[in-house]
What we know:
- About 45% of the residues lie in helices and about 15% in strands.
- The chain contains seven helices and five strands, in the order αβαβββααααβα.
- The protein has helices at about 1-15, 20-30, 70-85, 100-105, 115-120, 130-140, 155-160, and strands at about 20, 40-45, 50-55, 60-65, 145.
- Helix 1 runs parallel beside helix 6, helix 2 (about 20-30) runs parallel beside helix 3 (about 70-85) and helix 3 crosses helix 6 (about 130-140).
- The chain is globular, with a radius of gyration of 15 Å.
Amino acid sequence: MDEVRERYTNIISAYGRYFPLAALITYVVYDIRQKKPLNIMYFPLSMKVQGFCIGLADCDLIGIRIGLNENQKQITILHELSHFILQHVKLYSDNYGTMTLCKFLSSINLNDINTEAFLRHDAIVGYSNARELEAESLATLLSPCIINVGTIPNIIRDLYRIRG
Ligand SMILES: [Zn+2]
């Protein structure tokens, strides 16, 4: 949990007490993920799962369950960003076998995406309870800092390739 507190303190000292979600995305892309583009996309996930994150060959991907309300969406994005911030996700999740986004999307059977098996894929990190607790704690700490709940200007969407 010291790692959570340290990361939180670093973010607050860099961006202030309040900042837009875009600032946190910038932090993840530039300071954590070596300028890899980040895509946020929506999937028909199982009701048990709000989101997932993966380091693909050409970008990072945060997957969010379709149908969440704006608050749930934001807390889920914060949770997945927290996995990146806490270094839970390898830069290339499957090492040399890491798929591109295109390959990843075409390899997903949309009928199977509701199954736990899909989300337990080795490439997707986050199934140890300790890491889940850490990500959830950091997301909870960061949540009151975010300005403009649920609204991301189009220019930022374009800049950071945020979809949805
Ligand atoms: Zn998680």
